[in-house]
Amino acid sequence: MSTPVALVTGGNRGIGQAITLALARSGATVVATARDVATVDDTLKAVHDAGGAAVALGCDVREPGSMVELAAAVDEIGPVSTVVANAGTAGPTAPLHEIDPDDWRDCLVTDVDGVFHTFRAFIPGMIERGSGSLIAISSMTGKRPLHGRTPYAAAKMAVIGLVRSLALELGPHGIRANAVCPGAVAGPRIEDVIRRQAESRGIGLDEARAGFTAASPLGKLVEADEVGAVCAFLASDAATAITGEDLNVSAGAVMY
Ligand code: NDP
Fold it and tell me: Which PROSITE patterns does this chain map to (predicted)?
């Protein structure tokens, strides 16, 4: 049997890098993308050091043509069994009435249209083969609102609706579609969100940061590797009965 091929958009850093590593450790050849392909080097090295296989390709998830070209290039490597639409932007943090319409649109175009363009490009091949696992990285923020994060929350909730409809549409073709909803993941992006939260609410950085860990019964932020492990599970044969789900990886914070 040939080695499975997986695609991870935004695989150059953060959560996407962790997902790439987890899928590579599970035995897939992983195609990791970024807009600037050179920025994927760190991920390639990490996968190589872990004894896995990964390839870097460039794409812009906002551009349908770019994603169709990507799908053709990935097809040259092998038939794709897993597509993880991870690339996204945090968008603006401000009260809704202060958000610039261009910033709103940029968030929705990257975080919702980006998932649409990504899946749309890879679905025909999966239908042809009669199998596949589609995974979209949504967010706890789609379900449990955070101050000032309206565009991001709207985008991430839309992704859950997209995935549920896809599960219905593609189930008869043997294709599963799921969303993963991480809570606050330790790393530079959450530090930035904490800073902007503090500014938007007029509170101190420590208070804003404490709000994130206090929401978890485990008293912790989520680690990117913990999101990667869930994606590897959803891609695996252990998850063949799981479709149309939105799995929280929030250290319990989604409950509060
Ligand atoms: P980062 O901001 O660290 O990375 C974003 C990734 O998306 C980068 O790889 C970036 O690549 C890529 N990307 C952004 N815009 C585009 C585009 N137009 N075309 C192609 N690639 C693009 O994000 P995180 O690792 O923190 O988050 C990854 C995903 O997880 C996102 O969907 C995010 O919303 C979600 N998430 C994150 C949480 C967190 O706490 N960090 C919590 C919940 C969900 P490039 O180098 O090209 O910019």
Answer: ADH_SHORT (PS00061)
